[in-house]
Design brief:
heterodimer; A: 208 residues; Rossmann fold; Arc Repressor Mutant, subunit A; 5-stranded parallel beta sheet; 9 helices; 55% helix; 12% strand; elongated; B: alpha+beta; Beta-Lactamase; Helix Hairpins; Heat Shock Protein 90; 5-stranded antiparallel beta sheet; 11 helices; 22% strand
Chain lengths: 208, 400
């Protein structure tokens, strides 16, 4: 099942909104348009790859303030900025804030469509990464605390014999716990396991 | 004998009469002398007399006030003690030439020179000179006036007037700069919509997927946006005029509406509601449209800015045109902003500003522009909140 991405357009000008929707539709992209930052925020975003096309100059909250606002709310949607009078400091601020592109109105259609595509790709990648992280976390949480302990020591480079001595159990027990942890984590190899555990467990929490 | 007696009596009579006349004349002369003495003694200008040798022979009490010398201190001294070094030689040469040839090197009816006070301070003076000959000796009299204050006032006036044209130009450019951003946005919106719609149609056409109904809708939008862009341009055309001053008969109501249309986005952005109370059939005024727009724009923008901090009451701007009893036109711009406190007239002082990034030139320039049209511009507090700026313009007699 492929997810249908959506492009959000926020611009206070009705003509610009409808023309952008029309332009995006010609490459098969679905767009939803809003006349202000507020009305966009009120809308519940669907759980699909998305990208925001945002006018810098909005009534009320400016586009740049809105970008900061979204970051503060932990909403990391890629933003393509549009401006009628782009100056360099403004575009630098926008790009530093993580904007995909900063386009001066009126722009070339291809530039906008390219920027939107980059934005959607970026969001798709981020979503996949998040999904992978969530899966890893679920699998790791399914391990018993003893299994987690054993795995951490394995990742730290300890031999089964050393782990058994450390935990005061038989080496055969460690062996079983280690195999069970590998299965639960769906690890194809020791290298794979180590890679996954490093993602799930920040270095500071590693067992010493 | 009789004749002798008669003659003696006649002589006596004549003698008495003569004595009486002398006494009378003496008293007259004394009175006149006293009169002139009092005048010289109480004169606010320093009066200094010098003899042929250039020595001071008389100085009045004002000499103390003007030069800082007691009259007794300077009597007998050369006149040049009252002059700075650089003038002494000029004076001596000119004086010698005058004695030899009668040719004056100064205008005796009043000449601006530099004086030197006892404390060494130089200061501007105006000198009037006169000459009398008594007992074959020539006496020169100088009336010396301290014109320090007058000079300062003149310099101030010159400094206020001279750069006015330049400041007005700068202000117009600054206003243009601020407007450019707003105009760019206004024009770019329809242009963006036009390009988007056009590009989208071209894409569909290339894919042989352009439905006539879709095309018709896109073309309708393109035409509407084209008209919108040209309306924006028409509205700002008056502002891009290059001519420095072009007075023509115009309708102030029209100018008010142009300015309000221009600041429309600003009003919307700041959530300011505007009410117009424009008097119908207003007499025409002879005015420079750009300057009048500038004045109104300034007042309206000031009004908007004065209300940005207001949150607890409506932000209302009232623009009114009316005819005064004198027949002159009066325009008032009333806001519900933070008001003027006690400094109502100070806002017209150059570089006085209450805005964080204000230049403090808008109102002084506006006032000078209005005054250049024979009108007045002033500020009064609004009740209960805000400020009222009013200006008048003389009517030409024709009506719109």
């Amino acid at each position: 099942m492929t997810e249908v991405p959506v492009v959000f357009v926020v611009d206070d000008d009705a003509s610009v909104r409808s023309s952008l929707k029309f332009l995006l539709s010609t490459v098969g992209l679905h767009a939803e348009a809003f006349d202000s930052a507020d009305s966009f925020l009120r809308k519940k975003c669907p759980d699909v790859p998305s990208c925001l096309v945002l006018d810098v100059r909005l009534p009320g909250l400016s586009g740049l303030d809105f970008q900061r606002d979204l970051a503060a709310r932990n909403i990391c949607i890629p933003i393509v900025f549009l401006t009628g009078h782009g100056d360099i400091p403004m575009s630098v601020r926008a790009m530093k804030g993580g904007a995909v592109e900063f386009l001066t109105k009126p722009f070339r259609d291809q530039d906008l469509l390219d920027a939107v595509r980059v934005g959607l790709d970026r969001d798709r990648a981020r979503r996949e990464q998040e999904k992978e992280m969530a899966g890893l976390r679920t699998r790791f949480d399914s391990l018993t605390s003893r299994e987690q302990e054993v795995v951490s020591m394995v990742v730290a480079g300890m031999l089964n014999k050393q782990i058994a001595a450390e935990l005061g159990t038989a080496e055969s027990t460690v062996n079983v716990q280690r195999r069970r942890a590998m299965e639960k984590m769906q690890a194809e190899s020791l290298a794979h396991l180590i890679k996954m555990i490093q993602k799930v467990q920040p270095p500071s929490q590693k067992a010493s | 004998m009789i004749l002798n007696k008669q003659a003696k009596a006649e002589i006596n009579r004549l003698n008495e009469e003569l004595e009486e006349r002398v006494a009378q004349r003496t008293s007259e002369l004394t009175k006149t002398e006293q009169k002139y003495r009092v005048m010289i003694e109480t004169a606010s200008d320093a009066v200094v007399c010098m003899d042929e040798s250039g020595a001071i022979v008389l100085a009045n009490p004002a000499t103390m006030r003007v030069f800082g010398y007691e009259p007794t201190e300077v009597i007998g001294k050369p006149l040049t003690v009252l002059m700075p070094e650089f003038l002494r030689k000029v004076h001596e040469d000119g004086y010698k030439r005058y004695l030899a040839t009668g040719q004056r090197h100064l205008n005796w009816q009043g000449h601006e020179l530099t004086g030197l006070r006892k404390n060494g301070q130089e200061f501007p003076v105006e000198v009037r000179s006169g000459e009398v000959t008594a007992d074959g000796h020539r006496i020169f009299t100088g009336f010396v006036r301290d014109i320090t204050e007058r000079k300062q006032a003149e310099e101030l006036r010159a400094s206020l007037h001279q750069p006015q044209g330049r400041l007005a130009r700068i202000s117009r450019l600054t206003t243009m700069g601020e407007l450019t951003a707003s105009i760019a946005h206004e024009v770019n919106q329809p242009l963006t919509a036009i390009t988007n719609n056009g590009s989208a149609c071209l894409r569909l056409l290339a894919n042989q997927n352009l439905d006539p109904e879709v095309l018709r809708r896109a073309l309708e939008e393109i035409v509407a946006d084209g008209n919108r862009a040209s309306a924006v341009i028409a509205r700002i055309r008056g502002f891009i005029k290059k001519a420095p001053e072009e007075k023509s008969e115009l309708d102030v109501n029209e100018v008010i509406q142009e300015v309000l249309a221009l600041v429309g986005p600003e009003l919307q952005k700041n959530r300011v509601s505007v009410e117009c109370d424009l008097r119908k059939a207003l007499p025409l005024v002879l005015a420079d449209r750009v300057q009048l727009q500038q004045v109104l724009l300034n007042l309206v923008v000031n009004g908007i800015e004065a209300m940005t901090a207001v949150t607890e009451r409506p932000r209302e701007l009232l623009v009114k045109s009316q005819i005064e009893e004198s027949g002159d036109l009066m325009v008032t711009v009333r806001d519900s902003g933070t008001g003027l406190s006690s400094e109502a007239d100070r806002v017209f002082t150059p570089f006085f500003t209450t805005k964080a990034n204000g230049m403090g030139m808008g109102l002084p320039i506006s006032r000078s522009l209005v005054e250049g049209h024979g009108g007045r511009l002033w500020a009064t507090p609004n009740s209960p909140h805000g400020a009222v700026f009013s200006f008048t313009l003389p009517a030409t007699g024709s009506s719109s």
